[in-house]
């Protein structure tokens, strides 16, 4: 899938969560009703109520990272990988009871044969046979809606946050099991790898006031990164900018159209971070002077668009970014643009891709600066963005088999279980070359991200073939994490009333038109006024009650 201009919010959520997870809509206990009647599932579960059903947290001590997490950053592993037999086990005994479980999940790739050696090996280790019902990840939502509306729902179903639209949230309420009796409080200790999943990820797994999802945790500092070509910067003697003005001045210096070199790609995502713009819904509100204000109502939002517009107007943005042609990442690695912004997975992805063809290639993350050249105001990323759910009609034995699968899949990096899930059988699906697991041809065909979707361990950075990427990435996250704070309702599932669900859908296209010079900033201001009249002010009142009930009133 090529990237044209700046990635859409939906595309970014999907690519980041799968590659390494967001906003999502769902549920309430302190429900907000409105004139005309309220839906008992609208709103959110308060932190006070969530505390009663959250699993206990017991950190895993099986493997220690080389770089501990700091300021919310991912822990990092820089050492060479050990042979499988030398790895510690996080699941010393089979937890499965020999049953068979049907799981529906997205897959971005070619499905392996159902009886392949990889599936047989993992199923044997868990003690459960899995019937994988994978669907094309790019069209997963279409299939998901049809399955959830039918009577043939599999034992487990994976649902990403970006697919939680339309009737999907209601289906989560009615179609899937409450896992509280199996995982709340100390019950989770029966599944040590699930107990080691960060509490924030579990909090986002509460839907309709019940613990329903098995999460894939995301890194708290997994935000859009402004990447630059460190190798070229050092060769040319360019200084990394530390403010918006310096960025623009450098961009003009870099740009040389006759040499087919431009300073940057579309930088709207980075501009939002530079100017301290709030995240997307439902974390798009803040208190200002005792009033609840939406992100699109702030000067920060308009200033970010205006700064990005000026980059386009100055001719420093690659022309294909304006027209939506080609792939921004390809232009960046080819040296046609020197700065771009994208998800965290690209740091390793580009490095690995270029290592065989351009050994001098080095990419680095630019520290995000504030709008005045000072410290930035950043916001933590969502703690989870993909969940696996268990069929409400499943028997107790089936639920336990599902949890055995999830506990195995959630094994931390550096364990036997993690190696098996990620790389398959040593000697068959991968070999260990100089401490780097390398997939064989059979491994490339058979080992896909499937078990990973049933649950996952805490997000880490671990690339034994490129340890410098780990050091650079963790260092960048530690520095940026120092400037991060939690937005209102952080990590809480929120379901807006359906009548306002699409109220702000037009703004992303409008933003892109403004920065490219096709519309004016004044058009955004008019759109905001229209948004208020069309229901924005009513939505504000709904959120005000929700936020106050959640104990996050203006202070």
Structure overview:
It is built from 21 helices and 19 strands. Helix 11 (268-274) packs across helix 12 and helix 20 (507-515) runs antiparallel to helix 21 (521-549). It starts with 8 loop residues before the first helix and ends in a 6-residue tail after the last helix. The protein has a five-stranded mixed sheet with strand order 3-2-4-15-7. It is α/β, with parallel strands linked by helices and 555 residues long. Mean pLDDT is 91; it is low at 1-6 and 19-40.
Q: Which features characterize this protein?
A:
single chain; 555 residues; alpha/beta; five-stranded mixed β-sheet; four-stranded mixed β-sheet; 21 helices; 36% helix; globular
What's a concise summary of this model?
The chain has helices at 9-19, 47-50, 117-126, 140-148, 168-175, 180-183, 192-195, 199-203, 230-236, 244-254, 268-274, 299-313, 319-323, 328-333, 345-355, 396-409, 416-423, 441-446, 467-481, 507-515, 521-549, and strands spanning 76-77, 100-107, 129-136, 156-160, 206-207, 210-211, 214-217, 225-229, 262-264, 285-288, 291-294, 337-342, 363-365, 378-379, 384-390, 430-433, 436-439, 461-462, 484-485. The protein is of the alpha/beta class and 555 residues long. Mean pLDDT is 91; it is low at 1-6 and 19-40.
Describe the SSE topology.
Elements: H1 9-19, H2 47-50, E1 76-77, E2 100-107, H3 117-126, E3 129-136, H4 140-148, E4 156-160, H5 168-175, H6 180-183, H7 192-195, H8 199-203, E5 206-207, E6 210-211, E7 214-217, E8 225-229, H9 230-236, H10 244-254, E9 262-264, H11 268-274, E10 285-288, E11 291-294, H12 299-313, H13 319-323, H14 328-333, E12 337-342, H15 345-355, E13 363-365, E14 378-379, E15 384-390, H16 396-409, H17 416-423, E16 430-433, E17 436-439, H18 441-446, E18 461-462, H19 467-481, E19 484-485, H20 507-515, H21 521-549
Parallel strand pairs: 1-18, 2-3, 2-4, 9-12, 14-19
Antiparallel strand pairs: 4-15, 5-6, 7-15, 8-12, 8-13, 10-11, 16-17
């Amino acid at each position: 899938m090529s990237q044209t201009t700046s990635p859409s919010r939906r595309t970014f959520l999907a690519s980041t969560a799968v590659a390494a997870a967001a906003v999502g809509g769902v549920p309430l206990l302190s429900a907000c009703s409105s004139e005309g009647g309220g839906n008992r599932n609208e709103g959110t579960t308060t932190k006070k109520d969530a505390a009663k059903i959250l699993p206990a947290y017991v950190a895993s001590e099986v493997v220690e990272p080389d770089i501990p997490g700091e300021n919310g950053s991912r822990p990092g592993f820089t050492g060479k990988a050990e042979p499988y037999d030398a790895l510690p086990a996080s699941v010393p005994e089979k937890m499965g009871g020999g049953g068979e479980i049907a799981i529906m999940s997205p897959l971005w790739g070619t499905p392996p044969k159902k009886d392949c050696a990889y599936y047989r090996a993992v199923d044997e280790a868990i003690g459960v046979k899995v019937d994988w019902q994978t669907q094309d990840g790019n069209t997963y939502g279409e299939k998901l809606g049809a399955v959830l509306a039918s009577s043939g729902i599999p034992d487990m179903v994976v649902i990403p946050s970006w697919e939680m639209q339309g009737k999907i949230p209601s289906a989560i309420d009615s179609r899937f099991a409450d896992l509280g009796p199996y995982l709340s409080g100390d019950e989770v200790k029966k599944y040590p790898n699930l107990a080691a999943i960060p509490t924030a990820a579990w909090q986002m797994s509460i839907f309709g006031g019940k613990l329903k999802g098995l999460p894939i945790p995301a890194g708290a500092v997994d935000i859009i990164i402004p990447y630059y070509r460190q190798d070229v910067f050092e060769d040319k003697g360019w200084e990394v900018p530390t403010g918006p003005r310096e960025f623009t001045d450098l961009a003009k210096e870099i740009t040389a159209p006759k040499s087919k070199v431009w300073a940057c790609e579309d930088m709207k995502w980075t501009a939002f971070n530079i100017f301290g713009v709030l995240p997307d819904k439902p974390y798009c509100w803040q208190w200002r002077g005792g009033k609840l204000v939406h992100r699109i109502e702030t000067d920060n939002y308009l200033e970010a668009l205006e700064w990005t517009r000026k980059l386009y107007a100055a001719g420093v943005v690659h022309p294909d970014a304006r027209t939506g042609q080609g792939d921004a990442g390809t232009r960046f690695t080819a040296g046609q643009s020197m700065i771009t912004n994208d998800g965290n997975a690209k740091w390793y992805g580009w490095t690995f891709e270029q290592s065989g063809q351009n050994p001098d290639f080095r990419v680095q993350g630019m520290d995000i600066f504030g709008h005045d050249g000072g410290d930035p105001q950043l916001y933590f990323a969502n703690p989870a963005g993909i969940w696996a759910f268990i069929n409400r009609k499943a028997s107790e034995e089936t639920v336990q088999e599902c949890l055995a699968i999830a506990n195995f899949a959630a094994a931390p990096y550096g364990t036997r279980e993690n190696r098996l899930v990620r790389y398959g059988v040593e000697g068959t699906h991968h070999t260990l070359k100089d401490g780097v697991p390398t997939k064989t041809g059979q491994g490339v065909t058979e080992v896909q991200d499937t078990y990973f979707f049933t649950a996952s361990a805490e997000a880490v950075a671990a690339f034994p073939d490129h340890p410098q990427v780990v050091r650079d990435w963790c260092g960048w996250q530690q520095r940026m994490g120092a400037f991060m704070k939690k937005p209102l309702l952080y990590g809480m599932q929120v379901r807006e009333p359906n009548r306002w669900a699409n109220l702000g859908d037009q703004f992303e296209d409008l933003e892109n038109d403004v920065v490219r010079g096709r519309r004016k900033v004044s058009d955004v201001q008019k759109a905001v006024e229209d948004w208020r009249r069309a229901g924005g002010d009513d939505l504000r009142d709904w959120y005000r009650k929700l936020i106050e009930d959640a104990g996050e009133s203006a202070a």
